[in-house]
Amino acid sequence: MKQSKSANPFDQWSELLELWHGLVDVEDKRFYQLLAKRFNRPTVELGIGDGRVAATVAPDYGVDFSPVMLEKCRKRLGTSCPYLIEADLKLYHLPERAGFSYAPLNTISHIEPNDRETVFRTILQNTKPGGYFAFDTIVPDLDKIKMRDRAQIYRGRTNSFAIYEVSEVKSYERQEFVLHGIIESIAPNGEVTGKRYFPELSFFYMFPEQIRSLVERTGWQIESVWGDFDETPLTEESRMQIWLLKHPESR
C-alpha cells in the first residue's frame, strides 16, 4: 500500500479526482457556463484543476497552484485550453483584469482562514470595476460532520476500481476537517487486489454569515446568494451556498 509524497497534495489528488469526476456529473459545469454568458470577458477560472469545468465554460484564463493539475488541464483541453497561470490565489496576477471569475467545487474552502481576506482582495484587484466573482461551497451541517468523523464513505466504482473518502475533524474551533482519499484496485473476479491512500487535504467550512462578513470586509458587493445550481434562494435547509459578488464600479 503506497502513498506518494508531494509538497502539494493536489498534485497527487489529481489522479483520484480525475477518476472520481468520471463517475459523477456535477451540475456546476452548466451553471458556470450560463453565468459566464451574462458577463463581460475575460472569464477566469480560479482553481481550474484538470479542466473539468473549463471544458464546458471555456474561460480565457485559468489559475491553479498544482503543476500536475495544470498539465492534466492542457492534455484535456488541447487547443481550446485557456491561458494557464501557475500561482497561489493569494498572489496571482492576470494579464488583463477579469470581467467574470469563478471558483467551483469548494475551492474557497481549501483556503487557510488567515489567507481568506488576502485572497478575496487579490481577486478584487484582478477584476474590472463592475466585474463579477462567483463561488460555491457547502453549508456546514455540524451533525453530519460529527457523524462522518473518520468514517469511510463510498463514492463510486467501476469494474476495476472503487473510490472512498474519509473525513477527519481537526478542529471545531478552526472549522477544519481533512479529507483522505482511497482507491481500491479490483480484479475481474471482484477481489480487492490493492489500496492506494492519498495525502490529506484541509477543508475549512464557513457558515453563510461568516462569508457575508468576509465579503463586506474585503470591499465586494453581494449581488446574489443561492442555495443550489438552479438559483433557488439560500435557506436554512440549503446544503450548499453559491455567492455572486460584484466589484464596486466606484473603486
Automatic annotation (TrEMBL):
Domain of life: Bacteria
Pfam families: Methyltransf_25
Domain Methyltransferase: 45-131
Entry protein name: Methyltransferase domain-containing protein
Organism whose genome encodes this protein: Thermoflavimicrobium daqui
